[in-house]
Prior knowledge:
The chain is an alpha+beta fold. The chain has 2 domains: 1-28 and 139-155; 30-137, no CATH class. It has helices at residues 4-10, 16-25, 51-54, 70-76, 124-137, 142-153, and strands at residues 32-36, 64-66, 82-87, 97-100, 107-110, 117-123. The protein has a 3-stranded antiparallel beta sheet with strand order 1-3-6. Strands 2-5-4 form a 3-stranded antiparallel beta sheet, with no helix packed on it. The longest helix has 14 residues, at 124-137.
Amino acid sequence: MRLKPLAMEAIKYSEFAEFSDDYSFNLMRGRYWHITDNPQFSIEAISPSDLSSMAGHYVSPPGLMVSYTPELWYEYFPRRKYAAEIDLSRAYKNKDFTIVNRGFGHEIFVHNLDSISVVKVTPIENAIRTSHQYNKRIPQSKEELRIFWEVACGI
């Protein structure tokens, strides 16, 4: 299936309404990225160090920030020339990660790093191009999403 990452996300949900809400409101789209300056990036706990995370003298706990939109992060961090595609297929919202809003677009903070893995590391331009192509192929309407969920779940 060309949209295997989204299918892996879809099968986590026993009800379509829950999947639809996370897809639409939390932007759980199955394919996630972490931008980095390390072409050999591997999973390790990192405390976010941007001013948004450190405002009010609060240091975020270690974990890893990921997003389905690498292009938004790249606008804020242009020196990071690579993107690691991160597999969240074994990770579950609220158990292994939370959806956050620091003002950088869609972001997920993964606190259980044992639930994720690196698929590949690629130059940021490739990740952005891949992300755009993927986002053109994912369901664009609620009806398309329902059909996709039913097929992925074998209903």
